[in-house]
Amino acid sequence: MSEAQESALPPAGQEPKPHTVKRNSSSKTAIGLLLILMAGIGGFSIYVYQQQRQTAQELATLHDELQQSRSEQSALQDLLETQPVVKESLASLGEQQLKLDGRQRELEQKWLEKEHQRPNDWMLAEAGYLVRMAGRKLWLEQDLVTAGILLTDADSRIQAIADPSLIPLRKALAEDIAAVKSAPEVDREGLSLRVGTLLDNIDQLKIKGLEPKLEQDPISDEVSDQLSDWQTNLEKSAKQFAEHFVTIRRRSSQVEALLSPEQSAYLQENLRLQLQLAQLSLLRQEQANFRNHLQKAQSWLSDYYEADDSATQFMQKELTTLQEADITGHYPKTFAVQPLLEKTLAERWQTAPAAR
């Protein structure tokens, strides 16, 4: 053994140091460094993730703020565009306010003028209103009774004023009341009901030719008691026996052409239409049309229906009577008192400011 090898050996009695201890210490250090490195990387990753999340939130907030800013900008633009319209509306409202103020001053002026009118002028105005209502009742509704009552009430109002200057008004009112009360009253409702009764009886009418009249042969069927007439009696007996099986009759008039069921229904509908048109002309006070429709219905009744039937005779008589009725009525076209009332009221309104 060489000296170098001997020097490398440990002294006698001393155990050599194991080399594994140094290796274990180095491994622990490496593992520790690795764990620190991994912890640093994990912490850095968490930090980066938090920073990215915070940045995303800030971007989202910024986006919302940007959208809100755009909305506000759009609303501001709309406001700028509608500003002229608002100005025009405000100007129009101002003009309307000025008109209302002027109207208010006008009404106040009229109220002040009214305070200086005669105390009974309101009764005169009420009389004028009653006269106008009487005209509507007379000319629109042909109500003579109500029109007369309204004119009488108007006269009572003027009488209560006790003003001698209004005597011409009362005189004209008296003439109007007399004209209304003396006018003939037309019972259009009653006439319309009579035409309606004829409409209901159309189905009971009998059309000509449906029941022809027949007559029997005037032959004596008596059998004589003479033996010499045995041959004649035999013929008569045979004839009487045969009459139980065969009957021969002759017509007393020429055979008329019968209407078909469709034609009969058409005829009835046309007759009904003429009577309905007569009712309409009655409501419209068309005298000529009223008579024309009744005459046409009467002509068809004579041409196509049995004259001897009681329903036909009743309808013919009613149609003749209705044609003689006067459906127009002769009412006064105007009231003599109305222009006098309007003139008197206008004069009193015009003289009212002078009394202040």
From TrEMBL:
Q: What class of enzyme is it?
A: transferase
**Where does the chain cross the membrane?**
30-49
* Disordered as annotated region, ranges: 1-25
Per UniProt, the keywords (alphabetical) are: Membrane, Methyltransferase, Transferase, Transmembrane, Transmembrane helix
User: What is any Pfam family matched here?
Assistant: HemX
One example of a Gene Ontology biological process annotation: methylation
InterPro entries with a match to the protein in the record = HemX
Q: Decide whether keyword Transmembrane helix is in the record.
A: yes
The EC number of this protein is 2.1.1.107
A GO MF annotation of the entry reads: uroporphyrin-III C-methyltransferase activity
Q: Could you identify this protein by its name?
A: Uroporphyrinogen-III C-methyltransferase
